[in-house]
Known about the structure:
The complex is a heterodimer. Chain A is 0% helix and 52% strand. Chain A contains no helices and eleven strands. Chain A is globular, with a radius of gyration of 13 Å. The N and C termini of chain A lie far apart (39 Å). At the A-B interface, β5 and β10 of A face β5 and β10 of B.
Amino acid sequence: xxxxxxxxxxxxxxxxxxxxxxxxxxxxxxxxxxxxxxxxxxxxxxxxxxxxxxxxxxxxxxxxxxxxxxxxxxxxxxxxxxxxxxxxxxxxxxxxxxxxxxxxxxxxxxxxxxxxx
Amino acid sequence: xxxxxxxxxxxxxxxxxxxxxxxxxxxxxxxxxxxxxxxxxxxxxxxxxxxxxxxxxxxxxxxxxxxxxxxxxxxxxxxxxxxxxxxxxxxxxxxxxxxxxxxxxxx
Lengths: 117, 107
């Protein structure tokens, strides 16, 4: 059973870059694709984007100009960088991967990122 | 982007009740529709994929139906552990989009 774990700073200053890593265990990152989703407190889920094992990406157009995803197959990790953050980017960030059908079947526990000076 | 609209936004029900949550897509998504359950402080958990397929390990009191633009999630007999927030999500096109959620509360 694949397991995912997010890590990274819990506090980021406005205008700086948010950086998160997701470590995958119980499966190889060299298969399928890997996604990021976020959720502001008390609000709905928002899909940020995904990265394929080839390195190709799909981003949410609403965030595309500020988001970069990458893979590190040697460490079985994938990463998210989001630049020029504001308070509106404060949220719990989840990493996830494909499950049955085209669902998001496996999720990390989530990590809270707060944007504040 | 495909907009997903859930109704109701919140629902009060009692243990043993049958409840139905509706999700409507802004355009046809065939059966590329998934349902998730989220409890406070936890990651979403997949319940139903491809509109009507029950994820392994999920109790059979959960069922999904629909195709095209209109979908439903039904819980046949509510159990105490089912009180949570439920989200639909389309996997038909990029960007993936979620409904706004339905919070199921104890009456």
